[in-house]
Design goal:
Length: 99
C-alpha cells in the first residue's frame, strides 16, 4: 500500500490549466482499482492519494504520468507501507498480489 502526497510547488498557479487532465488521471487510477481514496490536504498545500495493488515501481511510474507532476505543479512524495491490521472491509487489499 502507498500514500502519495502531492505537494504544490511555486507553479501552483498553473493548476487550473492542468486540472481536467489531472482529474482524468485520477479517474483512470480509480477505474484500474489502484487508487482507493484521494483528496486535498486540509492545509491547502496539495493532495493525497491512497494506492494499493501495485508495486512501488509501478506506482512511481503512474505518478510520473500525472499532468500535475509532468508540468511541475506538484512534487510527489510516495511512502510505501505494509499494513499489519485493517478494518475487515479492507482485508482483501492485503491478500491480493500486486500487479
Amino acid at each position: 500500500m502507498h500514500i502519495i502526497k502531492l505537494h504544490f510547488s511555486a507553479r501552483k498557479v498553473d493548476a487550473p490549466q492542468w486540472m481536467a487532465a489531472h482529474n482524468a488521471w485520477l479517474d483512470a487510477g480509480f477505474s484500474d482499482g489502484v487508487f482507493l481514496a484521494a483528496g486535498s490536504l486540509e492545509d491547502g498545500s496539495g493532495g493525497c492519494i491512497l494506492a494499493a495493488q501495485q508495486t512501488r515501481d509501478l506506482v512511481e511510474a503512474r505518478v510520473a504520468q500525472d499532468p500535475f507532476v509532468m508540468h511541475g505543479v506538484v512534487t510527489p512524495e510516495i511512502t510505501s507501507f505494509k499494513p499489519g491490521r485493517t478494518q475487515p472491509a479492507l482485508a482483501s487489499l492485503l491478500t491480493q498480489t500486486p500487479a
